[in-house]
Amino acid sequence: MTNPTRVLPPRKPRFSTPLAGVEPPGADSDRLNAWARPTPVIIQQRARARERALAMASVVRVVVLLATDLLLLFVGHASVNLARGGDELTRLAFTSVGFVPRGTFPRIEVITAIILGLTIFGNYRSGPRWKNVTTLLAGSSLGLSLVFWSRLWNGASIETIIAFLLLLGIVAAVLSAGRHMLYHAVQKISPSPIGVSRAIILGSRASADQIARAEAVSMNQRIAVVGQVITDAALPKDCLGGLSDLVWILERHSIDSILIADQLHEDVLIDVLELAEKTGCTAMIANPVFPFAGFVPTVIKRGHIPFVRLTRPSLRIPQLISKRIFDIVSASALLVVLAPLFVVIAIAIRVSSRGPVFYRHVRVGYAGKRFQMYKFRSMVRDAEKLKADLAEMSIYTDRRVFKIPNDPRITS
After folding, report:
1. Could you say which of 6, 56, 300, 385 has the lowest number of CB atoms within 10 Å?
2. What is the pLDDT of residues 265-309, one digit of tens each?
3. Is residue 76 very low, low, confident or very high in pLDDT (cuts 50, 70, 90)?
């Protein structure tokens, strides 16, 4: 005999629809019509509007970037032709004819190939890649390779290699300069930071206040916190509303980011994440889930199963080498620049007290390694011997730490 199938009761909606005629917390008269629509309708309409906005932004971005690249490439191609055929530019013409002979730089083929290379390497996608020099160089290299592939293999010579590298560098530099000029032009047109997010903080009042005061949020020019959505039973008057009002708050205030300030219950968190996905919002957990100071969580996959890897940020070998080179070069330069000041300090030390100019002492560095430390002497010559007589005057009870006010060993 089989067990009868258990029928679960329908799940109560997480995000409610306000009662007719009841004005929600903080509602303004300009957008009260939003409260007359059911929650699913708002979610669907917002999702469609978000999709249309993203599609339009992608089209505008691609059209503007493509027009800029085509203009630069056409101008560049015309400049090469002018250099090859102009009598008044004999020297430049001779050089360009040697590097780029006639018939090897067809306009349509070259421009089409470069645009195709830029597309393959994601130079027309959203994000920082559109003005990244590395991806522009990779896309230009692929495009020029498609055109010059046969010549590089059939007639490879020092001249053809130099020609290819020269063209590659010029094309990448021109495209990069054009896109950076476009970026600065956009900044001039829109003085406010590009991509400012209108965000709300979701969580208990204590956690929401803590996140709102955090420097990463309060000092972040790309996040504009509109208000707080409190999950406590008693809602404060200055909040935007409770968890059940989340859909309406997203709609009324045009929110596109949700900062989660608490470790919500699993089903609550899933509902919030699903709502964020449907309405086109970015959900960010502002409160660390793992209370391990100094460790950074990173999501990785092992056999299609996600794991969170905890690592402590540290310098790698290339970074350590770069830091060491920077330290040596900077210190050497500062020694030369500050040499006149050091001479004055040395003379002042010799005049004010007897003894050497420099004080030497063995210190312990990284991994317990000892090294000889040099500094300008600021105490009398026998300061170490006098330390034992002054031990009782130290402000610390621990004998390993010594400090007294108005130390008589310090020179003028």
Report:
1. 6
2. 878 888 888 888 888 788 888 765 555 556 677 777 766 676 767
3. confident
Q: Which two tokens stand for residue 100?
A: 């780029």
How far apart are the C-alpha atoms of 368 and 363, rounded to whole Å?
9
CA distances to 14, 60, 351, 374, 377 from 344, in Å: 74, 63, 11, 17, 13
Rounded to whole angstroms, how far apart are CA atoms 285 and 278? 18
Residue 216 · residue 285 · CB < 8 Å: no
C-alpha 208/C-alpha 230 separation (Å) is: 8
Specify the 3-state DSSP secondary structure of 395: coil
CA gap 84, 101 in Å, rounded: 8
The CA distance from 35 to 28, in Å, is 11
- Could you tell me which of 193, 178, 281 has the C-alpha nearest to residue 229? 281
207 CB-near residues (< 8 Å, 6+ apart): 261, 262, 287
CB neighbours of residue 173 within 10 Å: 14
Asked if 266 and 191 touch (Cβ cutoff 8 Å), the reply is: no
Burial category of 343 from C-beta neighbours within 10 Å (exposed 0-12, middle 13-18, buried 19 and up)? exposed
Rounded Cα distance, 228 and 196, in Å: 18
- Amino acid occupying residue 100: V
By C-alpha distance, which of 368, 335, 280 is closest to 53? 280
